[in-house]
Amino acid sequence: QVQVVESGGGLVQPGGSLRLSCAASGVIFSIKSMAWYRQAPGKQREWVAYITSNSITNFTDSVKGRFVISRDNAKNTVYLQMDSLKPEDTAVYYCRATVYASLYASRKKQGSDYWGQGTQVTVSS
């Protein structure tokens, strides 16, 4: 089994910054990719950013130029640096890790998705 735990959320004023962390632990051979999603009140969960095992990144248009995603493979951890935050960034932020549990799974590209419980980000004056 794999556990995914997010941290770093909080209350910040518009224009401020926050850094989210997400750590995966448990039965992990390697991690194919990690991603951040968010869900605002009354809205569907949306994808925010992802990073692959070789650090290829991509972002949804609304956060490009403001958010940076990075990872520490040795710690199975991904970070989301959020700058120039806006009230519309307010949401619960979730981390998803796509994990290979074994060498066999890695060779077969049989990854499994694990989600964290989420961390609240509130941007308000």
Could you describe the 3D structure shown?
With 125 residues, the protein is mostly beta strands. 4% of the residues lie in helices and 55% in strands. The protein is built from one helix and eleven strands. Strands 2, 4, 5, 6, 9, 10 and 11 form a seven-stranded mixed β-sheet that branches. β4 (30-39) and β5 (46-52) form a beta hairpin.
What structural class is derived from the secondary structure elements? mainly beta
- Cα-based radius of gyration, to the nearest Å: 15 Å
Strand content: over 45%
- Pick out the low-confidence regions: none
Q: What's the helix-strand series? A: EEEEEEEEEHEE
- Which range best describes the helical content: under 10%, 10-25%, 25-40%, 40-55%, 55-70% or over 70%? under 10%
Count of helices?
1
**Anisotropy-based shape:** elongated
Q: Give the termini separation.
A: 40 Å
Specify the biggest β-sheet: 7 strands, mixed
Average pLDDT, rounded to a whole number, is: 96
Number of strands: 11
Short description:
Helices cover 4% and strands 55% of the residues.
Could you give the topology of this structure?
Blueprint: E1 2-7, E2 10-12, E3 18-26, E4 30-39, E5 46-52, E6 57-59, E7 67-72, E8 77-82, E9 91-100, H1 103-107, E10 112-115, E11 119-123
Parallel strand pairs: 2-11
Antiparallel strand pairs: 1-3, 3-8, 4-5, 4-9, 5-6, 7-8, 9-10, 9-11
